[in-house]
Specification:
The protein has a single domain, classed as Cytidine Deaminase, domain 2 (3-Layer(aba) Sandwich). Helix content is 33%, strand content 23%. Helix 2 packs across helix 5. It is elongated and about 85 Å long. The protein has an eight-stranded mixed β-sheet with strand order 9-8-7-6-2-3-1-10. It has a three-stranded mixed β-sheet with strand order 5-4-11. It is α/β, with parallel strands linked by helices and 243 residues long. It binds zinc ion.
């Protein structure tokens, strides 16, 4: 009886082994990952911890891998513990400088980065509204949030084709050569860009308050500029040149 059962089981195994190979072999789907160079990650941690407020900026993507962040750049902004508002003129100037340095628009206008005080990196309702409104015109974009406590949140959104969005993992890529930390330059960038609406430095008080991006502003034109085609024509330069 025992031998009969064994023979039956072996027979089943033999049958299983004779199964035809799959026409489309199963593979683990590749999950895109937002990666930072160690230098970019160190800079982001420095900027997050430099003051008491949130800070925001743009990820500068590697030309060969748009989800590899080589640098994190701030623009002039007014920040509280729960908000970041970009100066629209500063954003236009930032975009112009990136183009002048030879970067493609998808390298500097698609990865929106900001920090959260506290432990939660979950996007707020205003974060969601801003991401949908301001980045909904580009073919793809990433919202990345780093909380004070270390939690991260990244979501990749496609606005073309079948559309969709997915949360993606975040990693620091140590496999390539990377530059040394430069806290002095990072600190200068922070001081130049991050301001509180409640306190005004002597230098800033003499200039007219900047117009800030807020919930009423329309960033559509701003992100149309960041589309790859057409780009840097004389007509567009005249449209987007700072006035
Ligand atoms: Zn937020």
């Amino acid at each position: 009886m025992v031998n009969a059962n064994l023979a039956e089981r072996l027979g089943r195994r033999r049958k299983r082994r004779r199964r035809q190979p799959l026409l489309f072999p199963r593979r683990r789907p590749m999950t895109p990952t937002l990666r930072f160079t160690p230098t970019a990650w160190a800079k982001l941690l420095f900027l997050r911890d430099r003051g008491e407020t949130e800070v925001g900026g743009f990820g500068i993507s590697s030309p060969l891998d748009l989800l590899l962040i080589d640098d994190v750049r701030l623009v002039r902004q007014q920040c509280t513990s729960v908000t970041v508002a970009f100066d629209d003129q500063a954003v236009a100037d930032f975009f112009d400088r990136q183009v002048d340095q030879g970067l493609r628009p998808e390298q500097f206008g698609r990865v929106w980065i900001h920090t959260h005080p506290g432990d939660s990196a979950s996007p707020s309702s205003k974060d969601e509204e801003t991401f949908a409104r301001c980045f909904g015109e580009s073919d793809w974009a990433v919202m990345f949030i780093l909380a004070q406590g270390g939690e991260t949140y990244a979501r990749l959104r496609f606005n073309i084709g079948p559309r969709g969005s997915l949360e993606i993992p975040v990693d620091v890529d140590y496999r390539r050569p990377f530059a040394a930390a430069d806290q002095t330059t990072w600190d200068l960038e922070y001081v130049e860009c991050v301001h509180s609406p409640y306190f005004t430095s002597p230098n800033v008080s003499e200039v007219e308050p900047p117009h800030l991006f807020d919930i009423e502003d329309d960033w559509t034109d701003w992100f149309n500029f960041a589309k790859p085609e057409p780009f840097a024509t004389a007509q567009e330069e005249s449209v987007y040149a700072p006035t």
